[in-house]
Amino acid sequence: MTEHPEHRPEHYTEHDVQREVSELQTKSATAARIFDLRRIIGGLFVVYGVIVTLTGITDSQAAIDKAEGVNINLWTGIGMLLLGIFFLAWLKLRPTVLPAQEERTE
Q1: Which tens digit of pLDDT belongs to each residue from 45-102?
Q2: Nearest C-alpha neighbor of 51 from the set 29, 26, 81
Q3: Coil, helix or strand for 9?
Q4: Rounded distance between C-alpha atoms, residue 56 and residue 82, angstroms
Q5: In angstroms, rounded to a whole number, what is the distance separating the alpha carbons of residues 51 and 56?
Q6: Residue 43, CA distances (Å) to 15, 36, 47, 59, 95 in order
Q7: Residue 86 confidence (pLDDT)
Q8: Does pTM surpass 0.70?
Q9: Measured between alpha carbons, how far is 59 from 77 in angstroms, rounded to an integer?
């Protein structure tokens, strides 16, 4: 198979290469922030915490008596909410920082 001249890559200047590298670094940093485990864990704990807390608020007396008088859904839901908020606050206070390009290539 021979390459057709019109399909050969064009000559890239140093400026083009630097621009491309900069764009890829930006995309990499964005992906690292999006898929940070603290965001995923915190978000899931907040969502499930809201659901379990609402279940605990609406529990009947029979369900509370079944748990020996403790509204376990309410307390577990509040704990999950607090843990989820902790993870999200941690993410906000200490965001993900990618190492500089020179450090990653070594």
Answers
A1: 999 999 999 999 999 999 999 999 999 999 999 999 999 999 999 988 987 776 665 5
A2: 81
A3: coil
A4: 15
A5: 9
A6: 40, 11, 6, 24, 16
A7: 96
A8: no
A9: 12
Q: Please state, in angstroms and rounded to a whole number, the distance separating the CA atoms of residues 54 and 79.
A: 13
Residue type for 67, please?
A
Q: Which residues of 19-46 are buried (b: 16+ CB within 10 A; e: fewer)?
A: eeeeeeeeeeeeeeeeebebbebbeebb
Which tokens in the block code for residue 56? 């605990």
Q: Name the more confident of 33 and 52.
A: 52
Q: What is the rounded CA–CA span in Å between residue 41 and residue 84? A: 7
Which pair of tokens denotes residue 25?
């670094």
